[in-house]
TrEMBL record:
Residues 232-396 form the DUF418 domain. Keywords: Membrane, Transmembrane, Transmembrane helix. This is DUF418 domain-containing protein. It comes from Christiangramia crocea. The chain crosses the membrane at residues 21-43, 63-89, 101-119, 125-141, 148-168, 213-232, 252-270, 290-309, 330-350, 356-377. Pfam families: DUF418. InterPro entries: Bact_Transport_Assoc (IPR052529), DUF418 (IPR007349).
């Protein structure tokens, strides 16, 4: 049985603001990418994108390619793994560390993800995070060397498509069958003119058709960076972030430069050569691009950390912490606003917005979220979904208003 000792709540002043800034930054980047998919699904995205030829739209597309695509998913994954390890260490200190606690926590997150997929948007990753997060919790007590080895292995292994294909064939799972008969025109009609029930059916079909991509492309990245976050948390780098950021500056700066060089070569040089289309070599080019994007995401965290500790731009970065403290709420809210913007239950803007318009809309909505989050946190300790997740995890109705004293901890990033 679990120890029933009451854990004291985390005090506001004990939070590490920079980690909340990181989470807010990740929420912004994820939405900039997600809104592009909300505006035009993968089924019709390439054809839809060809119509935008203006200078501002080309620049916007380049910005997305170079600075956003596949950069922010690793950031959020790293912070997720870091959060798991920090929470585990805190519980271990109090003699309350148990697998059942994390199993319950991840199961609730999984259910939130399922709700998200069915009723709001099929592009959810929360259920994937829950499954992988539960796996990572089993490695908390393992050696640093093993955790780092697995992190690099899951990132660098190049044959996930083949492995996934084998499993799909063994299970007689045909992802393409779920969207048989669906083309870009029909999807457009369902989203922009169809009923909400038709939208639910489409979202379920889209998710089931994307399972191979989810588990062969996104899952390895998430698992790898979860483990890196777990390693950093176990080694308590959060106790002296300024020193850690200074220490890794030179190697990370070099890695950032090299990753950018490769990204430019991959996007604008390699496509001109036949070697780019070689079926034996292309998987390695793509894998190198994925590694480059992960490195770039980590480089973003470093540069933000350096600016935080060494420049006056800290003042401009501070507002991100409010959105970061309500990351789950803001993530789901972004999907809900996308449903309102693009579907028939709202403004039916599906496949009408240009790259510049989607980029501008994402930044505008996020700016409002920062303001809303600040106002909310003035009166409440947690975001609405963060509070719900916490209550269900601890199996207790926790106070949320700031004037009340909590009986259980605010699970966040803490100084020791």
């Amino acid at each position: 049985m679990e120890n029933k000792t009451v854990i004291q709540p985390t005090k506001k002043e004990s939070r590490i603001d920079l980690l909340d800034v990181y989470r807010g930054f990740a929420v912004l980047g994820i939405f900039v990418v997600n809104i592009v998919i909300m505006n035009s699904t993968f089924l019709n995205q390439d054809e839809f994108a060809q119509q935008w030829t203006s200078g501002i739209d080309r620049i916007s597309e380049r910005i997305l390619q170079l600075f956003f695509y596949t950069k922010f998913f690793p950031i959020f994954s790293l912070l997720f793994g870091l959060g798991i390890s920090m929470q585990a260490l805190k519980l271990k200190e109090k003699g309350r560390l148990s697998f059942s606690f994390f199993a319950r926590r991840m199961f609730i997150l999984f259910l939130i993800g399922v709700f998200h997929i069915i009723f709001i948007w099929s592009g959810d990753v929360l259920n994937l995070y829950a499954l992988l997060g539960l796996m990572v919790t089993t490695l908390i007590g393992r050696s640093n060397r093993l955790i780092l080895f697995l992190s690099f292995f899951f990132l660098l292994f190049p044959f996930y498509d083949e492995v996934m294909g084998f499993f799909m064939e063994s299970l007689n799972y045909d992802p393409g069958s779920y969207l048989n008969g669906y083309d870009g025109e029909l999807v457009n009609q369902i989203i922009s003119e169809g009923s909400y029930l038709e939208g639910i059916q489409l979202r379920i079909r889209e998710y089931l058709s994307n399972v191979p991509m989810l588990f062969s492309f996104l899952a390895p990245i998430a698992l790898s960076v979860f483990l890196l976050g777990l390693y950093l948390g176990k080694n308590q780098i959060y106790k002296n972030l300024e020193s850690f950021i200074s220490r890794i500056g030179k190697p990370l700066l070099l890695a950032g430069i090299l990753s950018n060089i490769y990204r430019l070569v991959f996007l604008f040089v390699l496509p001109e050569y036949d070697i780019y289309s070689d079926e034996n070599l292309r998987p390695y080019f793509v894998k190198a691009m994925v590694v480059s994007d992960v490195v770039m995401g980590i480089f973003y965290l470093w540069i933000i950390g350096w600016l935080w500790y060494n420049s006056k731009l800290k003042t401009l970065l501070k507002p991100l912490r409010y959105a970061g403290r309500m990351a789950l709420t803001n993530y789901i809210m972004q999907s809900f606003l996308g449903l309102i913007l693009f579907s028939s239950i709202g403004f039916s803007l599906y496949e009408t917005m240009s790259p510049f318009q989607t980029l501008s809309t994402a930044v505008a909505i996020f700016s409002v979220q920062v303001i809303y989050s600040k106002l909310w946190l003035t009166y409440f300790k947690f975001g609405p979904l963060e509070w719900l997740w916490r209550c269900l995890t601890y199996k207790k109705l926790l106070p949320i208003r700031r004037l009340q004293k909590a009986n259980l901890p605010e699970v966040g990033y803490e100084k020791q």
